[in-house]
Amino acid sequence: MAPSHSKDGPRPNGKIAVVTGVNGYIASVLGHDLLAKGYKVRGTVRSRASGQALADGAYRSFGSQFEVVQVPDITAPHAFDEAVKGEWRIYHVASPVNLSLTKVEEVVHVAVEATKNVLQTAHDHAGQQLEALVVTSSVAALLNMTEGQLATSHVYTEADWNEKSEKQLAQPGSQLDPGQLYVASKVAAERTVWSWREDHKPSFSISSVLPSLVIGTPAQLPATPDGLNLSLQPTWGVFAGENLTLQDLIPITAVVHVRDVSTIHIWCGEYPRDSDGHRFIASAAYCSAQATADILRKHYPARRGIIPEGHPGQGYQSDFSKPPHQLGFDGTKAARAVGLTYLPVEQMIVDTAKAMEKYL
Description:
This protein is 37% helix and 14% strand. The chain is of the alpha/beta class.
């Protein structure tokens, strides 16, 4: 399911890259792409079984170039000490994304403490060869949403910060719903990164990547669609005909292909002087449930009786650009730096659906 590489495999480049939470959606694609470039990848996982599933599946052809490191508690002091020794790049992708969690300490505390652990361990134990540490954040860290702001035409850039979530966390006894907790965790974790960098002035570069909604070909799918991550579930819902009322789904939202997110991460690690101290939004275009249905009905005519029709062509721009009076995210800084042309929405949807054909 993951992109193929040459028959003889990539030539090892002698460098080690650590990917935290390697069994996650973005992290597993990033890990595969690093392996395909010749890196030895150490992937951290809470459960060894989840890492072994990659070793036996999508990463099988890379053999000993992939190493699983079990880190049961990412908040524990020195949790990453063994994982980072001798590495050249660290990609900290692991973060709690579980909307069943409802307590600040279960989400925000975990994200912040894990980030502190990775930063301090990199500083104390990695070695002089470490060139770059790249942190996966989210456009959620930008969204300074106040009443009615979802309807604004504001375009967020790397200069923006979600101050509202920070204020909510600062209020004693504040009650946040699971979605608000996730957003708050991304803000708090990324603030931790930049505060730590200012205090410690490390010899290695630090940068962050802030994706919008990520879709596209996974490195490896779960056994059943029930295990799909939150960003892939809407596409599956339309493809499977489960979401018959398109209007009930997430309205138009910014999207980006997982392959482009991986490419930006890798560039940040390989060009530490250019990426150091920078945030990079990864966002390509704007899609909706209606657009998803239109694309899938076009590419899967035999499923037109299953995929809801809705109101074809309505509610989104024909070129998938930002609609008027819709908030947006400017992903041009990353595209210019990397020399990247973002993959188009149609490819995002079709690549995702092709991977999900195994469930039909």
